[in-house]
Amino acid sequence: MERAGRMLLAVAAVVAAFALYPQLFPTRLNLGVAIVLFAAMATAWDVLGGWGGQLSLGHAALLGIGGYTMALLSLRLGVAPWWGMLAGVALATLFAAGWGWLVFRLRGPYFALSTIAVAEMLRLVAINWKRVTGGAEGLFIKTLPQPFGLNLFDRTVEFYLGLGLLGLTLLVAWWLSWSRFGYYLQAIREDQDSAQAMGVNPTRYKILAFMISAAFTAAGGALFALYVSFFEPHIIFDIGVSVELALIAYIGGAGTVFGPTIGAVLLLAAGDLFRNYFQQANLLIYGILIILIVRFAPEGVAGGWTFLVRRWPRARRPAAAPAE
Question: What is the number of other CB atoms lying within 10 angstroms of the CB of residue 27?
């Protein structure tokens, strides 16, 4: 528990450091909001993908459920956005329970392919159910009530809402790092058959992990809808969003507390920098950066750092004298 206590202090320090961002970079708030939102959603993805070892390429569906539920309830029925967000979280959690019950009997690439299929079905529903979702033209969020006088279109407000969500997801990752539930997920990730032989019910724990992941991803989707104020099915249900969440987690270090946050800072900041300085060549350089990280740090930046820290004392330790 001593290590868990130190890790909790580290979580508090990271959130406190992020809280200074609007004061340090007041002209870069768009980037800051994107970083905290994608860090939170990638950490949520990591609950299932990193800790549980289940590669999901359909998390865009959960993001879309959260965003569309909040926006539709607000625009069509006048429901306050915070209640719409909670409704989206509840709907996504129930959806993930049913979705997990159907697909967790599959393993390996079949599970990943099934998640793509579900997300694609939701995208087609959103496109063709024009009367409700606005179809391919999408939805505009023009006005919203101001809870406690807060303008939800203000980038500083959106940043701190995203930071609050990131803090919650980091607490979940911290809990997974020392709890029995987290150990069960890691056992399933490493060897599902052995875990089952030890009495762990893989389907049950994977569904629970999926529900937790879905709840926070849907909350991130609602905040993302506020951030962009306009979204349509081709953007919010796009497989590219799911791939980006997985990529952020893997580059930073899947199955670690801070890996997805590190990945979000690296990839989003690098992408923004390369767009400004290299224009058309930015995607090429972005791709080279990803290849280098995967080549030299296959366990992600956090995993590579842990490896170096563990090897450093050994490298400094004098070699043992040969036995006489």
Answer: 6
Residues contacting residue 219 through CB under 8 Å, at least 6 positions apart: 40, 66, 85, 88, 89, 165
Q: Which residues contact 48 (CB under 8 A, 6 or more apart)?
A: 54, 56, 206, 209, 210, 213
User: What are the residues whose beta carbons fall under 8 Å from the beta carbon of 143, sequence distance 6 or more?
Assistant: none
Return the percent helix, strand and coil in the chain, to nearest 5. 80, 0, 20
**CA 60 vs CA 109, 157, 184, 250: distances in Å:** 18, 24, 26, 17
Q: Which residue's entry shows tokens 């606005």?
A: 134
For the whole model, what pTM was predicted? 0.88
Q: Is 194 left (phi over 0), alpha (psi -120 to 50) or beta?
A: alpha
DSSP conformation letters of 154-168: -HHHHHHHHHHHHHH
DSSP sequence for 137-197: G-EE------GGG--TT-HHHHHHHHHHHHHHHHHHHHHHHHSHHHHHHHHHHH-HHHHHH
Question: How confident is the model over 151-194, as pLDDT tens digits?
Answer: 888 899 999 999 999 999 999 999 999 999 999 999 999 988 89
